Structures are given as C-alpha cells and as structure tokens.
TrEMBL record:
<keyword id="KW-0326">Glycosidase</keyword>
<dbReference type="GO" id="GO:0046872">
    <property type="term" value="F:metal ion binding"/>
</dbReference>
<dbReference type="InterPro" id="IPR011013">
    <property type="entry name" value="Gal_mutarotase_sf_dom"/>
</dbReference>
<dbReference type="Pfam" id="PF17677">
    <property type="entry name" value="Glyco_hydro38C2"/>
</dbReference>
<comment type="similarity">
    <text>Belongs to the glycosyl hydrolase 38 family.</text>
</comment>
<dbReference type="InterPro" id="IPR011330">
    <property type="entry name" value="Glyco_hydro/deAcase_b/a-brl"/>
</dbReference>
<keyword id="KW-0479">Metal-binding</keyword>
<dbReference type="InterPro" id="IPR037094">
    <property type="entry name" value="Glyco_hydro_38_cen_sf"/>
</dbReference>
<dbReference type="Pfam" id="PF01074">
    <property type="entry name" value="Glyco_hydro_38N"/>
</dbReference>
<dbReference type="Pfam" id="PF09261">
    <property type="entry name" value="Alpha-mann_mid"/>
</dbReference>
<dbReference type="GO" id="GO:0009313">
    <property type="term" value="P:oligosaccharide catabolic process"/>
</dbReference>
<dbReference type="InterPro" id="IPR027291">
    <property type="entry name" value="Glyco_hydro_38_N_sf"/>
</dbReference>
<keyword id="KW-0378">Hydrolase</keyword>
<dbReference type="Pfam" id="PF07748">
    <property type="entry name" value="Glyco_hydro_38C"/>
</dbReference>
<dbReference type="InterPro" id="IPR041147">
    <property type="entry name" value="GH38_C"/>
</dbReference>
<dbReference type="GO" id="GO:0004559">
    <property type="term" value="F:alpha-mannosidase activity"/>
</dbReference>
<dbReference type="InterPro" id="IPR054723">
    <property type="entry name" value="Ams1-like_N"/>
</dbReference>
Length: 994
C-alpha cells in the first residue's frame, strides 16, 4: 500500500479541531450577562455581589488594563436537558495560547461561595451532573483584565506594566457565555484521538506501532458521522480501544506526574494580582479533586498559602481539607521560591524557617522537598541549608535553559561548599508547566541522561507562571498514558513518592560539587539597582534590630518585638522572590518594592533606636554601636563603646592621598594610576593601568532584556575618561565629577585614617537606554581564580576561559566582596549594594569589574532611571578573612548614640574565622538566646564562645531552633563553651539563660 501517512494525519488534525472539540458541547442556550466595573483596586466579594449591574452582550469591550469587572451570569437549564451533564461556558475574550498571562476570573455562587477559576484553557463551570432540568443558574465572575505584557512581538517595551502609563482603553471583548450540555462520550473520543495522534508523531517512523495507531485512527474516523458526532462517538471509540489497551514495554521510562501550578509571586503582574491568582488556582484544583480521586497537587511558597488564608478563607478551608487527605501537598519549605544567588545567608536561612514553620503550624506537614524549578541558578551554600532545615531532597528545572553547556545529570547528589550532599532531581521534561502531551513525554524519556542506572523522572504538570494549574483535560491524558505502548508509563503521585523511589533506584547517583550556575539570565545580578540596595540594606538592618533588641531584652528587660520582626522578615523574604530581587518584573512591582523597603527601613530604625536608647541610657558621651562581628576603632564586635581612632593624619596634596599605609595617585582625569601599599612596598595597580575606571557597554541581548547579558556586550566598550572636575576635599578625599550622554557621575575617593583601604563613594544620575555601566580595577596580581562571597562562605571561580564551562561564567554573582590573590599577596574589593562582577586575567594583570547599572526596556521601559549611590572599598594586602571583615564593615557602619554607658557584647567569639551571623531571642519566646555561627575561611576552626549573661547551657539546633534528634550539648565553663567547626559549617546554637 502506498504511504498515506501525511494524508491521514492531516485528516485527524482537522476532524479533531473542527468536529470533535466543538461537539463536546452539542447543545447550548445563551445566558443573560450583566457587568459592573469596579472602580480602582479590587473590592471585597460582598461589594461585588451587591453592585449595580448593567447588561453586556458578547462582543462588547470590557476591562481597562489592571481593572476588575464583575460579571453576573443568569440562566435556566432547559427542561429537555434533565439527566444530562450541564455546564456554563464563560469566555471572557480569551486567547487560548496565553493561559496565565491575560484575563482570568474567579467564579462565585450567589451566596459568595467560590467555585473555580476561569482561564483560557479552563472556561467551564459545573452546573449539574446530572441536571434536573428547569433549575435556575446564577453565577458571579470576578474578572481581572490583566494585560498580556509579553506582547507581540515579545520583549517589546510597553507602558502596560505601570498603571500610571497603561491607559484605560478596554483590552478584551466578551466571548460566548452559555449554558451547554457536556457530552462526556465525545470528550472522551477527542482525548482518545488526541493522545494517540500525539503519541504517533513521537514513535519512530519505521515502528509498527506508529502504523498500528495510524490505521486505528483511520478506522475510527471512518466510523464517525461528522454530521452526528455525538451519535457515533461510541462506535468510533471502539476502533481505538485496542491500541489504547496495549501496555507499555517493561523497559519503558517511568514518569511521576505531579500536579502543579508554578505561580510567580510577582512578575508581569503585581503582588495584589498574585493574591487573586492563588485563589483562582486553589479553587480550581480543590474542585478538580472532588471529581478525580487520583489527582494529587503540589504547591510551594508558604506566602501564597498565607495570602489565601487571609483573603480567601473559604478556599483555604478546602485546601486544609485536601491537605489532611494527602491530596493537596505543600512542598518547598520556603516562604517564597526565592532567588538563591543574592539573598544573604541569614535571609536564605529564614526562607526555610518561615516557610517550614508555616506548613507545620497550618497543616502539620514537615516538608522534605525543596522545590525551586524557576530560580536563576543555585548557590553552593544551599545543600547545607536544605539539610539544616530538616529537608532531604531538591528539585529544579531551570538549568535546562543554560545556553552553552548541557548539564550532565538529571538525578544526582549535589554537594555544597561544606560537603553536605542533597539528593537532587532535574526533570528531563524541561518544563515546569507540562500539559502531559506526547511531545513532552517523549522528550522526557529521550533526554533522560541517567539511562542504564535509573529509569524514573518527575513531570510537574499544570498551567503555570501565571497560575491556573492542572485541568481535567490533562488528567484525561494521564489516564490514557498510565500504561500505553510507545509511551513512558505515567503515574500521578506526590513528589515525596517520586523521591523515595528515585533514591532507592539510584543510591549511587553521581555527585556534582559546587554551585548550579545558570548559563543564562546573568543580567539579573544588576537590573533594578534600587531593589537590590533595598534588599541588602534590609538584611543588615534586620541583623542590627535583632542583635540590639536581644541585647537590650537580656540586659534591661526591653520588650523584644517578636511580632514586628516576624512581619518585617516576611516582607523582606517576599521581595526576594525570583522575579523581584533579580529585577525582572514590571515597573509596578519594583516601585512597590522601593516603597516597601523604605517602610522596612523606617520601622527597623525605630526598633534599633529604641533598643540602643535602653542600652546606652542617658548621657552625652559619643557611644558607637558596632553590629559587625569584628571589633573596629576601639569598639568591640556586637557591642558599643566610645570610638577611638589613633592614627596618622591623612594628607591630600597634588592628586595624592596618603595615610601612611596607602599612597593613592589620582591623575587629571580622575583615574587612579597608582596605589602603593607602603608596608609591603608594592604597587597594586597593574603597569599602565588606570583603576576606578568607569566603562560603558552597549546592552541589547538577543531576548529577555532585564534578565540577560549576552557575551558579545564586551566587544564594544567606551572608557569614561572625560572629566568635569577633580578637586581635593579636606581632610582626606578627592572628588571626581563626570558627565556622559544623558547621565552624570560624582565620586569621592577617601583614605580613612589608620586603615589600609581606599573607599569610593559613587553617585550616578542615570538616564541611559540599553547600556551597561561597569567600574574596573586592573590589579597587579597574577591568579587564575577569584574568590567571591556567597551565603556563609565563598566560592572560587576561574578568571580564564579554558573550557566552555569557564567561558560561560563571564558574569558572576558575589555578595559583599570579591578577592584575588597570588601567593603572599591579595586584594579585596568590598561593596554595599552590588552583586554582578566579572574577573579576568591577562598575563600578570587581574581586572576586577563591578556591574553598577543596566538600562533594559523590558519589562520596565524606564529601568533604573534616576539617582543611585554605591560604596566600594579596595583593600590591598587583604586575606580572605580581611575581605570578610571589610564586607561586614561596609554594610554595617557604626551607629553613633549619645548615652552614658558602653555596651558589652551579648556574646563574643575568639576566632576571626568563626563569624557571628545572627544574635536574637528564640522564636518560641522562651527567652533563650539563639546564635548562628559559620566558619568563613574554608578551613577547620575551634573557637570559644563567651556569653555576656549568666549561661545555663548551650545546645545545637536546626535552622528552625528545634533540637536535633541527637542534639549536641556544649559543656559550659566560666560563662562560655568551645565549638569546633568544619569548613564553611553553619551552626545554630540555643543558649539557655540562668
């Protein structure tokens, strides 16, 4: 017989699209629709139900950008439909290709009971199954006119991301709103045909199975009367029963399908819209569970469930019921799916503290899976924090986006900087929004890298990013793919079931050591500088507030502000979400973040001032509070004293700054041509080089503007050497002013007395478009690697491009410092607000560059326009521990207070390699002091911890301040105890007071 494959496949496609799917609703009657357009922000449900409605017809416009319209749908089920399944079909004007990225709605009954969500691929509402006939129908839809920010073409600058510029022209036209008969037999036939057709396309062309499916489909279509699809659907399905019953091969790949709805806590929509997205999704999936007992749904992000409890208690009650039944599964153990590159160590720990505690308190669930499918790379500090939180598994998907190198494993042990290993899975389906299509499952099976050793993978399925979750159509596919020849076997289950199975199946999985660097989205270390500064400042203010409040509570009876600190921490953790802190959200999100950080700073300043007032008492002495873990200027670490600086004066003469330790020469262009380390008798600036050099690059990546910096940006650079003014500022500084394009820069270069560091304060009034601003320091240091601070330690990255893996790290993230060294001499560069860096070497020169600002136009066309301030400190002759010290110093400046007494530290540690990261009172309000330490140098360290209060005992705990199954107890002698830490170990201690 001749090859008629293309002919039959074309026939299948057309019949499916034009006859089968339309026939799912063979009879319908129009409903009566009325609308009320809510003014401004969303209103309570009661207000929407009680509003004054006006008639609206299909085809009429509604919905200005970000507006809310309430639709009232009324009708009556025809008597002739008695005994049949009836649904309301409500099309708000959907584009089926954009689920989660446009208009959505939440349906309520007339009494305010939430029913389910509406979205482009889920536009039905149950009325009766079976209907009695003649019953009235009244439904209310809270519809959100969310604009499609992605645009056409995608990544085009748009005013829609800011309500102030979005306009008020309606975005949508109301589609069909009907009561309709739902024909389950036709629906079943459509899924039979769709699943087999998708499978057929993925089966090898020469496989008999492909032709077996083709002929079965042909026979089914021959049996179908296209003029009477409902009447002939059952007969057509009989021709497909055989091929659907043929079981999968014994060696078929096994897929654990986990219902999911990846919901970005903010991205192309504001936080307030995410609150509603969560409600729509949770209503959807809990309703779906009532009809599908096999369905299991996993949801991460405690913040989102907290929103649900606050704003939609009825839906939250349904969630609690399904959690108790094991159907709705909390996962992730974090407050939000945060970025993991930029949050500080303590903040990343608190993501687990607040996330896991919420799940335990609200649901009695101890989450064991860390669920971060979409974050933009994963810090090498994370495995230890996973283990310290009481979790044991890790899931991500985003690494599949890497542009250069394919990650070699899908199931593996991930080892962090301290040696902790966590069992990790990276789904080979390469999406966290799967539909369970034949293409996706074939891709998962075919791309799985661990064949021969393991044969199982996980697939998160359900509409995501903007939410929506799984649909009944996806569950129909899963049912047909459970055991089908030519396909992987599909089992719906919970993530923990998969991980237990995978761990047993592959106990000797390979080990990946170090960070999971995403070779993509490198611009997120720099975009939206105000958001990044707000995060950094908030983290350090929280450290101060907890430290001084705890010290004051122990010493003076000060009322420790448990509730305020808890609330503020949750605000900061929320804004570490992986599209907020990275700077990849719409303007609305970042403007709100800026206001939130300002409010956080104000409130924390109040807490700090109140605690310091209680500690210092009345008086006129100039008391300096030092929240850093290192002493400075006569002030003890974690304490307060009268500051004493006994050092030679600083001289500024003829462009030379000299404090007796460093001699810095600044030329007429305001650039540093020499930095002499007097004690070491060594020049720090590379021969012929000029440091503190601002460099401007074009910045127009191939896609994903706010996210990406593509390597070719380095091909073109403009050195900003033109200068407006170079002037000496007494007694210890030089000011340099420049202007370029539409922007200006003012820098103050200062040598503090008695310190071997050059401080550089930079203020940029930035009004560029698609430009990238760097600050460069060519150093006379020969090294093939650079150290960069991460949470609770540091990593070394290459300064060369020997391999494709090395070359891909052309832009990297560092926290408070980077450090380069050759044997016997190193230089550190510390910062107070920047994360993006690049470090390269050329023979005897190592150039360290800091990324200051970008100017992408999508999704925020005015990204970072305005004034920004940065502080950097260049520290010649620095060791890694010197870099750690300077990183804390620049981020925790001393606070002056007029008082009458110094403050002894609440705790002190005698080894500079053992760093105090946080001091606070225990969250259980027992009055115990909680201390978090870490080893910072990457070696083994022993230290004595001395308490500044009567100490009854010291015990190690997990991150949540809970005792381990076998907690370590430290013998107390003379008011202190000794600890021994392994490289980069994090240790949480509970100190009981007598």
């Amino acid at each position: 017989m001749h090859d008629d494959r293309i002919l039959v496949e074309g026939r299948v496609n057309r019949v499916l699209a034009e006859r089968l799917w339309p026939a799912v609703y063979p009879e319908s009657v129009p409903a009566e629709v009325a609308v009320w357009h809510a003014p401004g922000e969303p209103v309570p449900v009661a207000d929407g139900l009680a509003a004054c409605y006006a008639p609206i017809r299909p085809g009429e416009p509604w919905g200005p950008p970000w507006g809310t319209s309430w639709f009232r749908v009324r009708g009556q089920v025809p008597e002739r439909w008695a005994g049949r399944a009836v649904e309301a079909v409500v099309d708000l004007g959907f584009d089926r290709g954009m689920p989660g990225f446009q208009a959505e709605g939440l349906v309520y009954r007339a009494d305010g009971t939430p029913v389910k969500g509406l979205s482009p691929r889920n536009a039905w509402v149950p009325v009766g199954d079976p209907a009695t006939g003649g019953e009235p129908v009244e439904l209310y839809v809270e519809a959100a006119a969310n604009p499609t920010i992605l645009g056409n073409p995608p990544f085009a600058p748009t005013p829609l991301g800011d309500p102030a510029t979005a306009g008020d022209a309606p975005l949508y036209r109301l589609g069909r709103v009907e009561l309709a008969v739902f024909d389950a037999e036709v629906w079943g036939l459509a899924h039979d045909v769709e699943v087999l057709a998708q499978l057929m396309r993925e089966v090898d062309l020469i496989s008999p199975r492909r032709w077996e499916i083709l002929r079965a489909l042909e026979r089914a279509l021959d049996a179908l009367d296209l003029q009477d699809v409902p009447g002939t659907a059952a007969a057509a399905r009989k021709h497909l029963a055989g091929v659907l019953a043929s079981p999968a091969h014994a060696s078929a790949h096994r897929i654990w399908a986990v219902g999911h709805a990846h919901i970005d806590s903010a991205w192309l929509w504001p936080l307030r819209e995410t609150v509603r997205k969560v409600a729509r999704t949770a209503a959807n999936v809990t309703a779906l569970m009532d009809d599908h007992p096999e369905f299991v749904f996993a949801m991460s992000q405690a913040q989102q469930l907290a929103w649900l409890a606050e704003h939609h208690p009825a839906v939250f009650a349904r969630v609690r019921e399904k959690v108790a039944a094991g159907r709705f599964v909390p996962v992730g153990g974090m407050w939000v799916e945060s970025d993991t590159n930029m949050p500080g160590g303590e903040a990343l720990a608190r993501q687990f503290v607040h996330g896991k505690r919420f799940f335990v308190e609200q649901f009695g669930v101890e989450t064991e899976e860390v669920w971060l499918p979409d974050s933009f790379g994963y810090t090498a500090a994370l495995p230890q924090l996973v283990a310290l939180s009481g979790s044991r598994w890790f899931l991500t998907q985003k690494i599949s986006w890497s542009q250069t190198n394919r990650f070699p494993h899908h199931t593996f042990w991930w080892e962090g900087i301290d040696g902790t290993r966590v069992f990790t899975h990276f789904p080979p389906v390469d999406t966290y929004n799967a539909e369970l299509s034949g293409r996706e499952l074939a891709h998962a099976s075919g791309s799985f890298t661990d064949k021969g050793n393991a044969n199982s993978s996980l697939v998160p399925f359900g509409w995501g990013d903007g939410g929506g979750g799984p649909t009944r159509d996806m569950l129909a596919r899963a049912a047909r793919l459970a055991d089908l020849e030519g396909s992987p076997r599909v089992t719906i289950g919970a993530p923990a079931e998969f991980f237990r199975h995978a761990e047993a199946e592959y106990p000797n999985a390979p080990v990946w050591v170090g960070e999971l660097y995403l070779e993509f989205h490198r611009g997120t270390y720099t975009s939206q500088a105000r958001t990044k500064r707000g995060n950094r400042r908030s983290e350090h203010l929280l450290r101060e507030a907890e430290l001084w409040a705890a010290t004051a509570a122990v010493r003076t009876g000060f009322c420790y502000p448990y509730d305020r600190l808890d609330r503020i921490w949750k605000t900061v953790l929320l804004h570490q979400f992986h599209d907020i802190l990275p700077g990849s959200s719409i303007a609305w999100v970042h403007r709100e973040a800026e206001r939130a950080y300002a409010a956080v700073a104000t409130e924390l300043a109040e807490i700090i001032a109140g605690a310091q007032r209680a500690l210092a008492g009345g008086g006129t002495e100039r008391i300096v509070f030092n929240a850093a873990p290192y002493a400075r200027d006569g002030v003890p670490a974690l304490g307060a004293a009268v500051s004493i600086v006994d050092a030679a004066p600083v001289r500024v003469r003829d462009g030379v700054l000299d404090n007796g330790l460093l001699r810095v020469t600044v030329d007429a262009a305001g650039l540093i041509t020499s930095i002499v380390d007097v004690e070491a008798d060594r020049e720090v600036v590379a021969p012929g080089g000029r440091a503190n050099l601002l460099q401007l690059h074009p910045d127009f990546p191939n896609a994903w503007d706010a996210w990406d910096v593509d390597a070719f940006y380095r091909n073109t650079v403009t050195d900003l050497t033109a200068v407006d003014e170079v002037v000496a500022e007494e007694p210890d500084a030089i000011r340099v002013t420049r202007s370029f394009s539409r922007s200006t820069v003012s820098q103050v270069l200062r040598l503090p007395a008695g310190a071997k560091r050059l401080e550089i304060d930079t203020e940029v009034d930035w009004h560029e478009t698609e430009k990238f601003l760097k600050l460069a320091f060519p150093l006379d240091v020969r090294t093939d690697r650079a150290a960069a601070e991460i949470q609770f330690g540091h990593v070394y990255r290459p300064t060369h491009a020997n391999t494709s893996w090395d070359a891909a790290k052309f832009e990297v993230c560092a926290h408070r410092w980077v450090h380069v060294a050759e044997p016997g001499y190193g230089v550190a560069l510390a910062n107070d607000a920047t994360y993006g860096h690049d470090v390269t070497n050329s023979r005897l020169t190592t150039t360290v560059r800091v990324s200051l600002l970008r100017a992408p136009r999508f999704p925020d066309p005015d990204t970072d326009h305005g004034v920004h301030r940065f502080r950097h400190a260049l520290v010649p002759g620095a060791s890694v521990l010197d870099a750690v010290r300077e990183g804390y110093r620049i981020n925790l400046p001393g606070r002056e207070f007029r008082g009458g007494r110094p403050v002894e530290p609440l705790v002190s540690v005698d080894n500079p390699a053992v760093v105090v990261e946080s001091v606070k009172l225990a969250d259980d309000r027992s009055g115990d002091v909680v201390l978090r330490l870490y080893e910072a140098a990457g070696g083994r360290a022993r230290a004595r911890v001395t308490a500044g209060f009567p100490l009854a005992g010291a015990t190690s705990t997990d991150l949540l301040e809970r005792p381990w199954p076998t907690p370590a107890e430290y013998p107390v002698t003379d008011g202190g105890f000794s600890v021994s830490l392994t490289p980069f170990q994090v240790l949480t201690l509970r100190l009981a007071r007598r």
